[in-house]
Amino acid sequence: MNVIVCRARRYSIRRILRCATCKTQRRMLVQDEAWYGSTITCCHCGDSWQDGERTLRSNKRGWRKEAAAKATAEWLAAGTYDPAAHEAWFRAETGDGA
Ligand SMILES: [Zn+2]
Asked: Ligand 1: distance of its center to the CA of 71 in Å?
């Protein structure tokens, strides 16, 4: 069953960062979660990191392609980073003066 929430629990941010797996600068999708910190996913190889630790790789066939495609789509959808919008999202998530 799909649960539809009225607001995204994760805030996506576009970044160009060095990927430890690709060993070069890549489009990296940063997804911020109010209570869990952020997850970074490489749009090229699909690897992701949470708090500097690489998350477990799936053993599903073709997961890299799938993860990379998903990250790329979200990276593109994230648009230009807006610090004010990010802060507003964070405040709403944490219930701080929303
Ligand atoms: Zn990579």
From this structure: 11
Q: Radius of gyration (Cα) for the chain, nearest Å?
A: 14
Residue 46 alpha carbon to ligand 1 centre in Å: 6
Burial bucket for residue 77 (CB in 10 Å: 0-12, 13-18, 19+): exposed
Interatomic CA distance for residues 75 and 10, integer angstroms:
13
SS3 91: helix
CA of 87 to the centre of ligand 1 (A): 28
List, for residues 40-98, the tens digit of each pLDDT value. 999 999 999 998 899 999 899 999 999 999 999 999 999 999 999 999 999 999 887 54
3-state secondary structure of 83: helix
- According to DSSP, the β-strands at 53-54 and 24-33 are unpaired
